[in-house]
Amino acid sequence: MNYQVGVLQFEPELLNPAKNLKKMKELLEPVKADLIVLPELATSGYLFNNLDEVKSMSEDAKTGKTAQLFLDLAIRKNTSYVVGFAEVENGEFYNSSMLVNPDGNIYIYRKTHLFYEEKKWFKSGNSGFKVFEAKGGVKVGLMICFDWIFPEAARTLALRGAQIITHSANLVLPWCQQAMITRSLENRVFSITSNRTGTEVNGDKKLTFTGMSQILSTKGDIIKRMNKIEEGVFITEILPEQADDKTVTEFNDAFGDRRPQLYKLRNDK
Ligand code: ACM
């Protein structure tokens, strides 16, 4: 099936959700695609300084402003979107992403591996690595940013049938974009890393984000890599079913040749 996938890269403004939602809408309105991935914490910005800021930015996954915008876009434009947002449920805060489908369904992933000061604000995600159907029944697995350094995340999603790994990110370390080539290649899945650009300053703290959002093939080829600072949406066409073929050589299958009984550590629970 020919499937149009896209990645959106932009510079959200810290603690300015109205401006960020407006910018995402303006960038997405002219674009046609089947699935588009947006950055981590795209509505709120990233560099929080206290819990009150986190509280003021956190939303209900199904009724918040991020859900409202993307439900409207998904239904009107017949597109699936994955976008990162700060989630609140029962007084707990999560660094989450939502998959919003044209049929009005919303699925949530809560970031499993929190990075640096995120541990001060957010609870580690308890959603696990589930695979969801996006538009057209294409199977997508959601990861967020620092999940990349734990190969178990992408492997679990791929073993559960993900054809595309969506990777909403606010990357600050220099290694992820190259590492994701291996994540795609070893799992024979497409991956879409949507990273943000720009620098955030809050009090004494400052972080610069690395951009270079990318779409990778099931063989780890770079279909597209944006530069460090540009804002915009890039769309390309893929065949998701290529991810169902795990063949490496006529004698090797990346999943069929696995020997999980030998990978188990004595202390693994
Ligand atoms: C990160 O996980 N946002 C680096």
What does this protein look like?
It contains seven helices and 16 strands. The strands form four sheets. A six-stranded mixed β-sheet has the order 5-4-3-2-1-14. It has a six-stranded mixed β-sheet with strand order 6-7-8-9-12-13, with helices on one face. It has a two-stranded antiparallel sheet with strand order 10-11. The chain is α/β, with parallel strands linked by helices and 269 residues long. Helix 5 runs parallel beside helix 6 (176-187). It has a single domain (3-262), classed as Nitrilase/N-carbamoyl-D-aminoacid amidohydrolase. Bound molecules: acetamide. Acetamide binds next to loops.
Summarize the structure.
With 269 residues, the protein is an alpha/beta fold.
Number of strands: 16
Shape: globular
What string gives the helices and strands in order? EHEHHEEEHEEHEHEEEEEEEEH
Determine the strand fraction and express it as a percent band: 25-35%
Q: Which cofactor or ligand species appear? A: acetamide
- Taking strands numbered 1, 2, ... along the chain, how are they ordered across the largest sheet? 5-4-3-2-1-14
How far is the N terminus from the C terminus? Answer: 40 Å
Low-confidence stretches: none
Q: What is the CATH superfamily?
A: Carbon-nitrogen hydrolase
Report helical residue fraction.
10-25%
CATH-level-2 architecture: 4-Layer Sandwich
CATH class: Alpha Beta
Continuous helix count: 7
